[in-house]
Amino acid sequence: MPVRTLAVIAALAGAGLPAVQAPSTEAVALESVITRAGAYVVAYRQNFIGVVAEERYRQDSVAKTTFDTRGLAREGDSVRRDTRADVLLVQTPGSDQWVEFRDVFEVDGRAVRDRADRLTKLFLQPMTVARSQLEAITEESARYNIGTISRNFNVPMLALTVVDPEHKGRFSFHGSPKKDNAPRDLWVIDYREQRARTIIRGASGEDMPLQGHLTIEALTGRVVATELVAESDKLRGQIEVTYADEPSIGILAPREMKEKYTAGSSTVTGRATYSNFRRFQVSTDEKLKK
Questions:
Q1: Which of 209, 245, 243, 254 is nearest to 228 (CA)?
Q2: Is residue 131 part of a domain?
């Protein structure tokens, strides 16, 4: 089969058609960086199993502009919320994808009363959650989001999906080495989702194609920073995440997530920081409370 293919190409070239161009050195290098990053993300998911971190999350919401009786614009109300939560990842059924579970234990300085043993119960069950649990976990994680803009994709590791071997075919990539970044050999890679029925969709099911960029260590494939933008006619969401080495768990971990959502004249911004990383362990003789 390979011999026939080469013969066809040679015949076409002899007929006066343009010769097939070999990929440039930079294009080959870009594909290598993306491949390494994909392998890194696959391993990263496995290494992050059972890792719990404390999240401190501040949200600010500005409601839609209103108008007084004279028809003059009046600035909408502003709301702020501070939460503390334990966050971890759970695996979705029949997939290699992971969903973040945000277990909020403090809201605006007050303890949340109904959160006892939720992490324990989740870990005593199989790591792969049932489909019936998945939606509940997603909604629970967004339970204390404020503002009129509904969203449940504000998770720091979402942009890693872009180079996951299962999904990278959905995206186009362009990138080059970052200047003056020795000795880390960082690349900045821009991406754009090309296929319909996008990974993120709006409340009415409309596509919200992803785009943004990743900063990747070329030799290791480690992703050290991400920017993700999901946008439709109704909503624009932007999430930026930076990573740093975390000795307590031996891998890179998200350190800061900044986000901004805009729908009409309503805006929600957020900033989350992560600390106290540890591996969650439950003894085999631990009993669930009835």
A1: 209
A2: no
Residue located via tokens 């939460």: 83
6 inside domain: no
Quick one: which of 288, 276, 275, 255 has its CA closest to 124?
288
In a domain, 36, yes or no: yes
For 104, 149, 214, 289, the CA distances from 260, given in Å and listed in that order, are 21, 11, 18, 39
Q: What total of structural domains would you count in the chain? A: 1
Q: Find the domain containing 249 and state its range.
A: 23-82+144-279
Q: Residue 207: inside a domain, yes or no?
A: yes
Query: pLDDT tens track of the chain, all 290 residues?
Result: 444 333 333 333 334 444 445 455 666 799 999 999 999 999 998 888 778 899 999 999 987 655 555 555 555 678 999 999 988 876 665 555 667 788 888 999 999 866 556 665 655 554 455 556 666 666 777 788 888 787 777 888 889 999 999 899 999 999 999 887 766 789 999 999 999 899 888 888 899 999 999 999 999 999 999 999 999 998 999 999 999 999 988 899 999 999 999 988 889 999 999 999 988 764 434 343 33
